Amino acid sequence: MNPKDFQLNINSIFPSSLWTSGNQEIVYQDIKRYTYREFYDRVRRFANGLVNLGVKPGDKVAVLDWDTYHYLESYYAVPMIGAVLHTVNIRYPPEIIFYTMNHAGDKFVIIRDEFLPMVEKAATLFDFVKGWIVYSDTDEEIKTTLNPYYNYEHIVESSEPIDPPDIDEKTIATLFYTSGTTGLPKGVTFSHRKLILHAQGLAMSISYSPLNITEKDVFLGLVPMFHVHSWGVPYLAIMTGKKYVLPGRYDVKKILEMIKNEHVTFSHMVPSILYMILTYHEIEQYAKYLNGWKVIIGGAALPKGLAKMAKSFGITTVGAYGMSETCPLLTAALFTDDMQNLPEEEKFDYMISTGKPAKLVNLRIVDSNYKDVPWDNKTIGEIIVRAPWLTDEYYKDPEKTEELWKDGWLHTGDLAVVDSGGYIHIVDREKDAVKSGGEFIPSLILENIISEIPEVGEVAVIGRPDPKWGERPIAFITLKSKTTKEKIMDELFKFVDTGRIQKWWIPDDIIFIDSMPKTSTGKIDKKDLRTKL
Q: Are the beta carbons of 471 and 506 closer than 8 angstroms?
């Protein structure tokens, strides 16, 4: 390899970060607190220990854990030696966890002690695994029937820090499986180059957002580290020298305590996590610590009602959009100079929209003939994209890969409109769209409107088969306070009178439920809701 050809690999993050931010902190709950320099030393020791165990370039190394410092070290140590980090979705059912690990061909597994019993019950099925690397938050000796097994901390303590090889930037660094709504999960891979460019694109996009991120901000990630690289923030945080707080297993009380004690100013999450925090029964005790909190919302549309609730606490929320297949960043609510003079309510609507293409993203919204839709805020098309960090394939699935990359563009399956200012507004997933009388009813817009009704907590709109219209919308709703279907319908007709929705969009029925079913990544599970019709 020509030394003049600088490689954009995971290790390339560290030289400048250590130079400028070597004393910056990484904090894991109240269990671990250390500097970037200490972190990098442990990463290199663990990387060397993995090599000594027999991990070879190209080997898949799985991780089963919550958001801990061990997981963050694995984010760097595994790809650093040319191996592939498989971030296992621990919220999958055990049989799907086994499927993804077997499909990936994991050679070694880094596993937290609390997940050992699940694996031990089916240990004979995991004959493809060569070694288990176990750890715990306590100093107690870990006991397991898995064989062979190694203690993570013993590996770090007994290994010298490796001098990382200069990995070719096109080498695959990560693998994980999508939580798709149909069929078995599909694997997606990303190279070192893709991860580094994604982190840079994310950094540039945030700088153009209304969040005003600076070197003084403290990051607390609330997207699981098994989910699309926690949206790239574990790389972004180290690259840009931010204090980084790791929450472990999500617990609202602990999250609020960390926000308070670590002076957290920035987080990223799906809407359901924000809703869970803001409706916590002791939230008023922490209200003053939330004032000034900056939050990026993705994974699902940010309901306006939830954004208004956040604003009442002094929280700034900004919308973003992406997919597992896209690493994930595609768009963010970027602010240009012409946005600053808009009325506050209009500006607020733009902040929680899908936004505009992120830096380095080539995005189109096209009709069925691949023609770009006009910027009229009403013509619906599919989002297709190209960017430097998109997955090349579905792992071991050439047929689905061909569908994904039809005609050289990645097809998202998301339906959207564009307004005159170039802001994108997703109106539905293609597979979730309600098509009534041959016309789309944009469920996301309808959900957004319903969320503004004060008594409504969470809402999901799905289509129910109808003999006359093909489909008609049905709304599932959780409540913050007591109300009736009739009162909600009355509120919806007020939105019709003001022109925000059309009369024929109003759901045929409203179904109250105690709680929304969620996918393994915290999104509302519409597939589950359809079984309740």
A: no
